[in-house]
């Protein structure tokens, strides 16, 4: 039985695809057979972040419309053996996805995989709702800014009402908060919302906190999920996040501003 | 300023109002029996009968034709002023109008109409109202208790009574009640109490950051709120058609 996890946010550009790629990689590195599905039909990005864009032949829409088999469309990751990618279509209309089609694909994957990650498109329309509909758990990606927090709040409302679990009255979708692009120095300066404010407003469990990091941009552009870059703070933070998803108790890191040393305070300081 | 100038040129303005009204619920259509009972009441509490306006409710009667004119005469003789009739079949409605009285639909239908108006408002998204997961139990007085966070885009309504939220109401969420709204948590969204016009309704919250507060149609936006009250435990009520707020601490 696979666990279906949707990576969603409402707002665009907060790091859904980066997080989906990094978490999928982390889960696979821990020995779980994992597939990550790009639901962003028309704005396909996951293949780029996963570095497999040149190997895409068939996509999710082809599978749903019966033009290709699932095995033809799945791409095996070249770095991690038990990690697979199911890309989105770049040419089709985003209405090409159907609920029945998605259900069929997920049921077929359910037999072989431990984890199925659904990389949701931004927004709250059909694509985003289909990505979350069959989920068992959700990772809600949020930036430390008010508009992102509000959109995440909206998504949490949908998770509680417009998913299969909600409609059937089953146990609710397990909601996890993942804060990305967190910059403790700017939080201290009051430029960004702080961790506690976000947790208080959204009132769900924090699964991880990813610091704002150059490693993330570098990883995306190179097509190597940042979870591979374990020398970087962001890479380590994603590894921590995956451990927590697997039920381990890992202390939070990277959320406090590292005070400058004495010398930089004397000569380069002047903050506040 | 321009508003005042305009008003000076008008003969009147229409205003919605909910006035206290005595409903005289008839269980007999016999004017003589009504007269006897009124005579007894008049001797008991003469203060009540001072041209008091009443609405004659004939919902409990099952008679196609009423001696409405005689019943009205009996009432007036006892210093009651019938102003309208509620319920009854079409001939009753016609004779009420002929006597210069207003006519109201029967109460059950009226309250159902109000509810359907409530759920037809564009902001309401039936499937988007929080339902399945949080515990919710019908309260005795037609009120509603909701445990959990009311999130952006969600709308929670108590069409017949008070609404109690044990949790926060987030920005972009809307909570509405025919009675009062109680929020045991932060109120960051919109709260509307007394949506059917109850002037005695109030809004109570543990932490005030509300986008909009309204009691019986009188509202304040966040920027109209005294900044000293923000983040505090506050009650909002109506006094002399003015929304007043006071700290509960």
UniProtKB/TrEMBL annotation, chain A:
NCBIfam families: minD_bact
Keyword flag Nucleotide-binding: yes
One GO MF term attached to the UniProt entry: ATP hydrolysis activity
Keywords tagged on the record: ATP-binding, Cell cycle, Cell division, Nucleotide-binding, Septation
Taxonomic lineage from the root: Bacteria, Pseudomonadati, Pseudomonadota, Gammaproteobacteria, Oceanospirillales
CDD domains: MinD
Family: Belongs to the ParA family. MinD subfamily.
Gene Ontology biological process terms in this record: division septum assembly; negative regulation of cell division
Organism: Aidingimonas halophila
Protein's job: ATPase required for the correct placement of the division site. Cell division inhibitors MinC and MinD act in concert to form an inhibitor capable of blocking formation of the polar Z ring septums. Rapidly oscillates between the poles of the cell to destabilize FtsZ filaments that have formed before they mature into polar Z rings.
Protein name according to UniProt: Septum site-determining protein MinD
Domain of life: Bacteria
Location of the AAA domain: 2-150
GO cellular component labels: cytoplasmic side of plasma membrane; cytosol
Subunit organization: Interacts with MinC and FtsZ.
Binding site for ATP: 11-18
Automatic annotation (TrEMBL), chain B:
Location of the Septum formation inhibitor MinC C-terminal domain: 145-245
Sequence segments annotated as region (Disordered): 112-146
GO biological processes: cell morphogenesis; division septum assembly; regulation of cell division; regulation of cell septum assembly
Pfam families with a match to the protein in the record: MinC_C, MinC_N
Residues covered by the Septum formation inhibitor MinC N-terminal domain: 12-82
Keywords, comma-separated and alphabetical: Cell cycle, Cell division, Septation
Gene3D superfamilies: 2.160.20.70, 3.30.70.260
InterPro entries: CAP/MinC_C, MinC, MinC_C_sf, MinC_N, Septum_form_inhib_MinC_C
Subunit structure: Interacts with MinD and FtsZ.
Protein function: Cell division inhibitor that blocks the formation of polar Z ring septums. Rapidly oscillates between the poles of the cell to destabilize FtsZ filaments that have formed before they mature into polar Z rings. Prevents FtsZ polymerization.
NCBIfam families assigned: minC (TIGR01222)
Family, similarity comment: Belongs to the MinC family.
UniProt name for this protein: Probable septum site-determining protein MinC
Organism of derivation: Aidingimonas halophila
């Amino acid at each position: 039985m696979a666990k279906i996890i949707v990576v969603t946010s409402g707002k665009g550009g907060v790091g859904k695809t980066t997080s989906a790629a990094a978490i999928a990689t982390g889960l696979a590195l821990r020995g779980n057979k994992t597939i990550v599905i790009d639901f962003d039909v028309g704005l396909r990005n996951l293949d780029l972040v996963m570095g497999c864009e040149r190997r895409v032949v068939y996509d999710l829409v082809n599978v749903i419309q019966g033009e290709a088999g699932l095995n033809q469309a799945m791409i095996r990751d070249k770095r991690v053996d038990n990690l697979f990618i199911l890309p989105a279509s770049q040419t089709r209309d985003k209405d090409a996805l159907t609920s029945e089609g998605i259900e069929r694909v997920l049921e077929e994957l359910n037999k072989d995989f431990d984890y199925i990650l659904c990389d949701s498109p931004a927004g709250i329309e059909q694509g985003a709702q289909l990505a979350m509909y069959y989920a068992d758990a959700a990772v809600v990606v949020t930036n430390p800014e008010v508009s992102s927090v509000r959109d995440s709040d909206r998504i949490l409302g949908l998770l509680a009402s417009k998913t299969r679990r909600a409609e059937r009255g089953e146990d609710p979708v397990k909601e996890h908060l993942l804060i990305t692009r967190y910059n403790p120095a700017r939080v201290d300066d009051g430029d960004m919302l702080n961790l506690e404010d976000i947790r208080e407003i959204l009132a769900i469990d924090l699964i991880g906190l990813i610091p704002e990091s150059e490693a993330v941009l570098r990883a995306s552009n190179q097509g190597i999920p940042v979870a591979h870059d374990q020398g970087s703070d962001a890479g380590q933070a994603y590894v921590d996040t995956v451990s927590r998803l697997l039920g381990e108790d890992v202390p939070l890191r990277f959320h406090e501003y590292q005070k400058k040393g004495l010398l930089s305070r004397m000569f380069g300081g002047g903050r506040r | 300023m321009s508003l005042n100038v305009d008003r000076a040129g008008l003969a009147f303005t229409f205003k919605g109002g909910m006035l206290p009204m005595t409903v005289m619920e008839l269980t007999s259509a016999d004017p003589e029996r009504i007269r006897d009972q009124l005579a007894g009441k008049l001797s008991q509490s003469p203060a009540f009968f001072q041209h008091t306006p009443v609405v004659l409710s004939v919902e409990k009667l099952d008679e196609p034709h009423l001696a409405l004119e005689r019943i009205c005469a009996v009432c007036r003789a006892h210093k009651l002023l019938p102003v309208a009739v509620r319920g009854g079949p079409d001939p009753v409605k016609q004779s009420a109008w002929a006597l210069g009285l207003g006519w109201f639909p029967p109460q059950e239908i009226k309250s159902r109409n109000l509810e359907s108006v409530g759920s037809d408002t564009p902001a309401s998204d039936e499937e988007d109202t929080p339902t399945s997961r949080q515990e919710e139990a019908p309260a005795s007085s037609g009120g509603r208790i909701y445990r959990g966070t009311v999130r952006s885009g969600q709308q929670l309504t108590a069409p017949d009574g008070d609404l109690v939220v044990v949790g926060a109401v987030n920005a972009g969420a809307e909570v509405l009640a025919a009675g009062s709204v109680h929020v045991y948590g932060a109120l960051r969204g919109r709260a509307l109490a007394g949506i059917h016009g109850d002037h005695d309704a109030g809004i109570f919250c543990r932490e005030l950051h509300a986008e909009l507060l309204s009691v019986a149609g009188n509202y304040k936006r966040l920027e109209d709120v005294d900044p000293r009250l923000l983040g505090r435990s506050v009650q909002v009520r109506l006094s002399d058609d003015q929304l007043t707020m006071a700290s509960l601490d």
